[in-house]
Inverse folding.
């Protein structure tokens, strides 16, 4: 299992919440009302950021060993460990909605027979795409 640990910088705000950024992951930001919530949101943000980079075939940054003085002063620094392969598996296997169009008469017949559209379409797509049985869940 792949593990990546990046430093997250938690900037306290005037209202007691925290804004979060990762120096090694430009553009990866988040927010939390409490430190506990912020840590959870930081992990979620880092996972999503790395997942997006993988989907775009971008190079994944190597985590730094140190931070700049600017990142440290007045902030809370926390190492955040993520598991990109587990997150990728979770995201890739999420069920998502998709719309289809059918002739009205076919839809009526299918509903009379209580057809499970999702199961039928998934099976048909796997067969059509020649996905081996070993990859089917």
């Amino acid at each position: 299992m792949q593990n990546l640990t990046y430093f997250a910088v938690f900037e306290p705000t005037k209202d007691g919440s925290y804004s979060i950024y990762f120096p090694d992951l430009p553009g990866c930001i988040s927010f939390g009302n409490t430190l506990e919530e912020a840590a959870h949101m930081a992990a979620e943000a880092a996972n999503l950021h790395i997942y997006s980079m993988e989907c775009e075939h971008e190079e994944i940054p190597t985590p730094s060993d140190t931070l700049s003085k600017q990142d440290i002063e007045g902030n809370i620094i926390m190492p955040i460990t993520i598991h990109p392969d587990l997150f990728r598996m979770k995201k890739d296997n999420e069920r998502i909605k998709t719309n289809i169009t059918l002739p009205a008469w076919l839809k009526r017949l299918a509903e009379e027979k209580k057809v499970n559209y999702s199961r039928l379409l998934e099976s048909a797509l796997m067969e059509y795409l020649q996905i081996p049985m070993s990859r089917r869940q």
